Structure formats: C-alpha cells, structure tokens
Amino acid sequence: MALYLVISVLIFLLVAYSCVALIIGLLGEVGAVRLARCPRCAHLVVNPRDTAQSCPYCRHVHLAHPLRTLRHPVRELVHH
Hints:
Layout: H1 2-30, E1 34-37, E2 44-47, H2 56-59, H3 61-64, H4 66-71, H5 74-78
Antiparallel strand pairs: 1-2
C-alpha cells in the first residue's frame, strides 16, 4: 500500500512539473514571459524582459541559501 502511495505522489509531482513547464513555454511563445539567466549568479529566472536585472536570488541571498549563509560571507554568495 505504501508503494502505491509513493508512486502516486511521484506521478502527481511529474504531472504538476510538466504542466508548469508547458504553461511557461506557452507564455514564452506568446511573448508574455522569458526565461533569462541572471548575469551575476547564473540562476534561471522567469522574467517579462529578456534580461534578468532583478534576480530574486541576488536580492535575497539569505533566503535563497540559508545554510551556506551561516558558513560564508554574503560577498561569496553573490559571486559564485
């Protein structure tokens, strides 16, 4: 019984991830959003413009990498 539950959860997560990717792709085809790579930290960001000038990972370093922030200074996190 537990195996069926695990398989069901994995299938649900796969379908949810596929739906989100499909929606982002369709919005990209229409020109509503773009996937852009941040020039500072190289994370992919869904953005209405072609360049990721306001990356949430660069703005909120402590929230994006909480465990690493405890061990390293903030300047190392911004410039991987």
